[in-house]
């Protein structure tokens, strides 16, 4: 059964299509390149006082403590050292999956326990940190693969694809009985640091590569520690309504 669209909606769609066609003709006739078009589009938004609709802000999904630890136990049980290192580094550094795939051996500073992220989201470079105890495992891995360019390298001597990392995480997550993606562990890391590190938002922003400090605010909602919750419950008990 075909849904009948309201006549007004149909006319509105046609009007938009006509405007797009006119704009395309103007751009082609004027010979504008991408940067020129960005400038024009920005000025049009300013002159017409156009504002994008606010996106709904959803809380990041993280694993509870038991599921989180069980996930890594299952990873270790598989006895794949590279998977174990790779998936732990996702959490320790809080990097995006594309950033993990692009890590080169040359980017690691094992002495200072940090990794340079080149051309991250927004074409920005930054450093991420990892624990001192993890440096030994990474040093052993690099020594065993001394010819590798990429920190984690496929059998074809190429870097892993983001799709392959997603598949690896999905396989372990299904065995654990949870839903998780590589980005889950970025959320997990930022939530943990928000709760336990005492870092200011500006410091977390440097490590996580968020473009706006306000983005980190959502992690405050899911990082409520037990002490805070206990104080809340006590205060509510004292009301005696």
Low-confidence stretches: none
- Provide the gyration radius in Å: 24 Å
Q: Output the number of helix runs.
A: 11
Structural class by helix and strand composition: mainly alpha
- Tell me about the largest β-sheet: 3 strands, antiparallel
Q: In percent terms, what proportion of residues is strand?
A: under 5%
CATH topology of the largest domain: hpI Integrase, Chain A
Order of helices and strands: HHHHHEEEHHHHHH
Q: Considering DSSP H and I runs of 4 or more, what fraction of the residues is helical?
A: 55-70%
Total separate domains: 2
- CATH H-level superfamily of the largest domain: Intergrase catalytic core
What is the straight-line distance between the termini? 56 Å
CATH class call of the largest domain = Mainly Alpha
Give a count of the beta strands, DSSP E runs of length 2 or more.
Answer: 3
Query: What is the general shape?
Result: extended
At CATH level 2, the architecture of the largest domain is Orthogonal Bundle
Strand order of the biggest β-sheet: 1-2-3
- What's the average pLDDT? 81
């Amino acid at each position: 059964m075909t849904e009948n669209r309201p006549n007004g909606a149909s006319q509105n769609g046609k009007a938009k299509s006509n405007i797009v066609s006119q704009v395309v003709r103007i751009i082609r006739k004027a010979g504008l390149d991408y940067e020129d078009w960005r400038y024009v589009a920005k000025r049009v938004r300013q002159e017409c006082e156009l504002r994008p609709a606010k996106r709904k802000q959803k809380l990041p999904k993280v694993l509870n403590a038991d599921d989180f630890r069980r996930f890594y136990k299952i990873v270790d049980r598989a006895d794949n050292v590279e998977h174990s290192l790779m998936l732990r580094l996702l959490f320790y550094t809080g990097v995006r999956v594309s950033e993990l795939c692009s890590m080169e051996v040359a980017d690691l500073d094992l002495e200072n326990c940090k990794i340079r992220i080149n051309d991250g989201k927004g074409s920005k470079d930054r450093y991420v940190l990892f624990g001192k105890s993890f440096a030994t495992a990474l040093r052993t891995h690099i020594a065993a693969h001394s010819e590798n360019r990429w920190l984690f390298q496929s059998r074809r001597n190429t870097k892993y694809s983001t799709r392959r990392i997603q598949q690896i995480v999905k396989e372990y997550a299904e065995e654990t009985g949870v839903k998780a993606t590589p980005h889950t562990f970025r959320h997990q890391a930022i939530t943990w640091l928000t709760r336990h590190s005492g870092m200011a938002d500006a410091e977390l922003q440097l490590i996580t590569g968020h473009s706006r400090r306000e983005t980190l605010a959502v992690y405050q909602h899911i990082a409520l520690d037990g002490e805070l919750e206990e104080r809340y419950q006590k205060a509510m008990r004292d009301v005696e309504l």
